[in-house]
Amino acid sequence: MNPPTDAQLAAARQVLADFQLEEIEPPRALAECRRTSLLLVGKNAAGNSFVLKHYLPHAEGEVLPAGVRPNDYAWRETGFYRLLDSVDPNRREVPAPRTVAIGPGEPPAWLLLELLPAAVGPKEEVVGQDHVMALLGKLAAVPTDRLVGRRGFPVAHWDPVAYLERVRTMYDSVLLVIGESRWRSVQSFFAEALRWTESRDHVLVHGEFLEDNIVVTADGEPHLVDFENLGIGNRDHDFAWFWIHSDRHPEWKRQLLARWFGSAVGGDRIRTEWGMRSAIAYLALRRLHWSFLVHGDEDPRLGQNLALLDAALAGGAELFPA
Q1: Is residue 149 included in any domain, yes or no?
Q2: What CATH number has the domain bearing residue 208?
């Protein structure tokens, strides 16, 4: 994503001015999360703060993730906030910021939300395992039929079928990196993953369930932000995403993994493992694809990402510590 132009920045600041909001310095965590949008923070005369998410257009020729159209992020997030406003205005089902206004256009040009007052302190002290588990439980409890068929809501799918469909669009670059033998293993792996997971009900999937997108307020309540990749599918996707991306101490992550598996035994345990392995294999392949596009044969993380892929394909102690 290219940095915002002066004209885009001016347009975003005009929205703040229209709402009589004074632009203020955003919290550091918010300032570091600019990808597909420009984030500005404004304060009103009463001292209340709001965040403006001004969506940025994709540059011509810019490479997008497999299966993604240029306007999907804005359509998906604004569509989800409209859904929340109609069925969960108090955000009891999905702890998320309240909507102040949604901009004009199709898709809407911007989204104005309340700014959640994050608790003071480093993330590792503020965001705990209970918060992670509670949010995952909230997402899993939302009826997915609310999302399907809504106008202006391109539902993302996060399941072994969708993973493999995306990976197949990366074929040229991925094959050069992993070779024919691994490619055949990947095909067989996702076929087996589907066999173990296809009978499970789909759940609401955040799609970018990372520590940076969790806000714990001063009263200890966890909330989620950034719904651009929201969709339905594999109930283990969000947990796997969080677990792999987390840089917490290995023992903390081991305990979190044990909580996720919980009392699952027999077939339930196997299905959970396959759900996680399929999400992690997809993540590893996506990383290999993007790294090849950016670095070519000089990918500095090639060995690390190949090891992650091999661990996901193998499963067992190679991936899940005892």
Answers
A1: no
A2: 3.90.1200.10
Tokens of 132: 């992670």
| Domain count across the chain | 2
Instruction: Tell whether 1 is covered by a domain.
Output: no
Asked if residue 272 is part of any domain, the answer here is: yes
Q: SS3 of 116, please?
A: coil
Structure tokens given for 61:
């020729």
- Rounded mean pLDDT of the chain? 92
d(CA 52, CA 113) in angstroms, rounded, equals 6
**Residues 78 and 160 both lie in one domain:** no
Burial of 127 (0-12, 13-18, 19+ CB in 10 A): buried
Q: Is 117 helix (H, G, I), strand (E, B) or coil?
A: coil
Q: Which residue, 43, 37, 89, is CA-closest to 227?
A: 37
DSSP-derived secondary structure for 246-280:
--S-HHHHHHHHHHHHTT--HHHHHHHHHHHHHHH
End-to-end C-alpha distance for the chain, whole angstroms: 40
In the block, residue with structure tokens 């109930």: 235
From 244, 61, 238, 95, select the one nearest 156 (Cα to Cα): 238
Count of helix runs (H) and strand runs (E) in the chain: 11, 10
The 10s digit of each residue's pLDDT in 230-241 is 999 999 999 999
pLDDT tens-place string over residues 29-42: 665 455 689 999 99
pLDDT tens-digit readout, 256-308:
999 999 978 899 999 999 999 999 999 999 999 989 888 888 888 999 999 99
Lookup: tokens for 261: 């598996």
**Whole-angstrom distance, CA of residue 264 vs CA of residue 254:** 16
CATH number assigned to the domain comprising residue 16:
3.30.200
* Interatomic CA distance for residues 202 and 156, integer angstroms: 12
